[in-house]
Amino acid sequence: MERRKFLYGIGVSAIGGSALVGSGAFSRVESQRDVAIEVAEDPDAYLGLSRTGSTNSDNYVEIDEKGHLGIDVGENPNDGEGVNSDSFTWFDSLFQVCNQGKETVGFYIEPPTDEDYPEGIDATGVEDTSYEDEPRVQFYTGEAAGVGDDGTESIMGEDNAVSIPVGECIEIGLRTMTKSVDATENNRLFGDELVLTADVDVEGVVPEVGELVLDEESDGLGPNADNKGQDRPYVEWEIDGNEIELTFDNPTDWYFAFDYRVDGESGTEDQWTGDTISEGPLEGEDFGERYQGVTLGPGESESRTVSAFSSVEVILRRGAEQNWYIPWITFNVQ
After folding, report:
1. Which residues, in sequence order, are CB contacts of 191 under 8 Å at separation 6+?
2. Distance separating alpha carbons of residues 250 and 225, to the nearest angstrom
3. How far apart are CA 75 and CA 82, in angstroms?
4. pLDDT at 283
5. If you ran DSSP here, which 8-state letter would residue 67 be given?
6. Would you call 150 helix, strand, or coil by DSSP?
7. CA-CA distance, 27 to 1, in Å (whole number)?
8. I want to staple 108 with a disulfide (CB 3.0 to 4.6 A). Which of 161, 167, 185, 295 is the partner?
C-alpha cells in the first residue's frame, strides 16, 4: 500500500483568500528489513501526481519548488476569488494520478472528517436539509455534464476505489458544495491535507473510457501527409478503443526525433528548449520541451503503443531539416 498526502485549499467567494499550496510527497514503508526510501518529485513517484494540461489544472494546480503537487481554488488569473457561496461547483480534470509502480492498484482518496474543516463547517451539509448527506468536497473521475453529478463518479473512500493498471493514469476532478456556508463568517471552505491511497489489495472499479478519435483540425495533418508523399519523416497510426499504435518512419539520410505525450503529461527541457525554429511549418515557435521521444536514424522505423484517458498528441520538431517538421497531431478520447 502507498499513501500520499497533498494540501489543498478552497476559498469561499465574497471574502476569498487563497490557501496553502504544497504537500509532503514521500512513501511511508513499514518493514522488518532494512529499507532504502527514495523521495521523488510528485510526477516521478510510484504514485505520480501531475497536471493535466486543462485550463482548470493550469489555473488551480501548482508544483512547488520541492516538486510537490497542491491545489489552490482561491484567487485565479481571471480575478476570481474562491468558489461561489450557496452552490455546487465542479472542476473537471484538475490533476492526474499515474500508476508508476509494478502492480495494478485500487486508488481512492480518504474523505476528510468534521475535524478537518474550519470551525463552523462540517464535512457534509447541515442536518434536516436536502443537502445533509452531501460532502462539502468530493473528488471524482469523469466530466460533469447534465444535472448534478451526472457524468462523474466519486473516488472518496475505499468503496469507491478506481483500478489503475501499471503505466496508466486517471484524471481527477473536484466538486465543492457551499450550501448553508456563510461567506461573511468563513473565508475558507477547506485548507488541510488529504490522504491519497493506492493499494494492490483493493479491487477498484475499472473506469469507463471512450475511444480515441483523430482531431481533423490538427495543424500537423497536412505536413505529415506531404512528408509521407515525398519520402520525408512521418507518422502513421492505428486506433483500437482508447489505445493507439503510433508508427514513426524516417526514410531520409538524417536523424529526426519525434515526440508524443499522453493525457497532457508534463515535459522536460533539453538544450534546444527556449530556442526559436527559424523556418518551416513551425517557424517562429519555440523548440519546446521533450515528452516521450522517439529518435530515428537514417532509414529507421519504430512503433509505440499507448493508451489514454483524455488525449494523445504527436509532433516532430527535432531534426536536420526544419522545413520537414510536423506540428501537433491530436487524438482525443470521446
Report:
1. 7, 8, 9, 10, 19, 20, 118
2. 14
3. 6
4. 97
5. S
6. coil
7. 9
8. 161
Residue 166 and residue 21: Cα distance in Å, rounded? 28
Rounded Cα gap, residues 124 and 179, in angstroms = 10
- Is residue 266 exposed (0-12), middle (13-18) or buried (19+ Cβ within 10 Å)? middle
Asked whether 214 and 224 are in contact (CB, 8 A), the reply is no
First to last CA, the chain: 32
This prediction has a pTM of 0.59
E strand or H helix that includes residue 139: strand 137-142
Fold adopted by 212-333 = Immunoglobulin-like (2.60.40)
Residue 45 has pLDDT above 80, yes or no: no
Q: Rounded to 5 degrees, what are φ and ψ at 222? A: -65, -55
C-alpha 22, offset from chain centre? 17
Structure-block grid coordinates of residue 325: 517538421
Other residues' Cβ atoms within 10 Å of the Cβ of residue 237: 15
Cell (9 digits) for 164: 489503475
Would you give the DSSP letter of residue 224? H
pLDDT in tens, 211-263: 999 999 999 999 999 999 999 999 999 999 989 999 999 999 999 999 999 87
**Whose CA is closest to 306, among 290, 327, 288, 292?**
292
Torsion over CA: 116, 117, 119, 125 (sign): negative
- Note whether 157 and 137 are within 8 A (CB): no
